[in-house]
Amino acid sequence: MAEPEVQIFEGTSTEETPSNEVDMAGAEATEADTGAGENGENGAAAEEEEVIPSKTTFIDYLKSPIVELLVGAGEDQTLLTAHQALLIQSPFFKEACANFSDNASRRRIELMDDQLDAVGCFLQYLYTGEYFPRRLDETQGLEPDPSVPETDDSGEQLLKHARVYTLGDKLGLKNLQTLARSKIHCVNSTARAEIVYARFVYAHTPSSDTVLRKPVASFWAMRSHVLRHEAEPEFRQMCLEYPMFGYDVLSLVLDHKESKGRDRPERVEGGVGASGRKRQRISQA
Fold it and tell me: How many Cβ atoms are within 10 Å of 24's Cβ, its own excluded?
């Protein structure tokens, strides 16, 4: 049996060649593995840092399911629609929409006790950030509305924004309430209109809501000696229907008189200080 032929390359030892190649390969493999691990960790960290949350566009809102809003009752009942992704910005609608299944063929929410115009203003605000008539600036007030008189004598212009305010409270939209309140102060109105507005405020807001109630009471406390003659029957009826209104007005009147008394220097009349009993009347008998 012939012995296998062994080839020896010039200048190379048969014992050194395999060992050197193995060592070099092993070292290179180790460095490569280490580098790959470091690069992998750094790459993963870089990817985590570069993750940017996706931005919701207006188109995304419009792609959301349509929700039907059944507003009012009786003959005036009206069906409106809006996109769910916009509606759920309100805590009220977010809770209501949570009851819909993903495959629901109809999504309907009933707003039987709400006024149609107020809901319409809310939807306009939801889609545009404002509702008609818009605020122009701090000095010019509201944009002109040809459909209403310049001076509100019926109270309807005041009630429009007051209803939006109370609806905003129901829906949990503080910014809408702030906008509506700012528009109330821009309306030119008569005493009769102010009484209509005051009646609505005291009928539809809790006693803890000083945002609307306090300005109403303050308005009448500071001007009641003049304005009540313009609408005295309405003013009297308002005090009888809502005793808290009369109490709030009277409290502010007394507070005002008390503060004026503190600002005046104390006078002495008949030996009695201004803070004491009034001087004795002189009989003319």
Answer: 10
Q: In the chain, which residue ranges form alpha helices assigned H by DSSP?
A: 16-49, 58-62, 84-87, 91-97, 116-128, 156-171, 174-184, 191-204, 210-227, 232-241, 243-263
The gap from C-alpha 37 to its chain's centroid, in whole angstroms, comes to 51
Nearest of 130, 132, 80, 128 to residue 108 by alpha carbon: 80
Q: Three-class SS of residue 84?
A: helix
Task: Return the amino acid letter for 138.
Answer: E
Decide if 133 contacts 125 (C-beta within 8 A). no
Instruction: Using the Cα atoms of residue 96, residue 101, residue 102 and residue 108 in order, give the sign of their dihedral.
Output: negative
**Among candidates 275, 254, 252, which has minimal Cα distance to 265?**
275
The sign of the dihedral angle between the CA atoms of 239, 244, 245, 247 is positive
Q: Measured at the alpha carbon of residue 49, what is the angle toward residues 43 and 51, in degrees to the nearest 5?
A: 105
Tokens 């605020």 correspond to 135
Q: What is the pLDDT along the chain (285 residues), one digit of tens a residue?
A: 444 444 434 444 444 444 444 444 444 444 545 554 555 555 555 555 666 777 889 899 999 999 999 999 999 999 999 999 999 999 999 999 999 988 888 999 999 999 999 999 999 999 999 999 999 877 778 999 999 999 999 999 999 999 999 999 999 999 999 999 999 999 999 999 999 999 999 999 999 999 999 999 999 998 877 777 788 899 899 999 999 999 999 999 998 888 876 766 555 454 444 444 444 444 444
